[in-house]
Amino acid sequence: MSEVAAKWYDKTWLVVVLSLLILPVGIYGIWKSESRPQGTKIALTAVMGVLFVLYIVMRVMNPDA
């Protein structure tokens, strides 16, 4: 019989790794997956956005680090 393979964006571990390594791809995976509720998608996207902005601000304030 034919077995349906899971899409890459339905694999939670892969989306987490991609979110840490390649932020835009990780966010795409979060939104593409149908297994996560919309509230979770919004919260995860907001948290990653805030962390990204904090990272940029910290790099600007302390460029030697």
Average pLDDT value?
91
Write down the secondary-structure element order.
HHH
Number of helices: 3
Helix/strand-derived class? Answer: mainly alpha
**What percentage of amino acids are in beta strands?**
under 5%
Cα distance spanning the termini: 56 Å
- Count of β-strands: 0
Radius of gyration: 15 Å
Shape: elongated
> Which residue ranges are poorly predicted, with pLDDT under 50 across at least 5 consecutive positions?
none
Question: How many domains comprise the coordinates?
Answer: 1
Mind summarizing the main beta sheet? none
- Give helix % range: 55-70%
Description:
The structure is a single chain. By secondary structure, the chain is mainly alpha-helical. It has one domain. 68% of the residues lie in helices and 0% in strands. It has 3 helices and no strands. The relative contact order is 0.11.
Task: Give the key terms.
65 residues; 3 helices; 0% strand; elongated
Give a short synopsis of this structure.
With 65 residues, this protein is mostly helical. The chain has 3 helices and no strands.
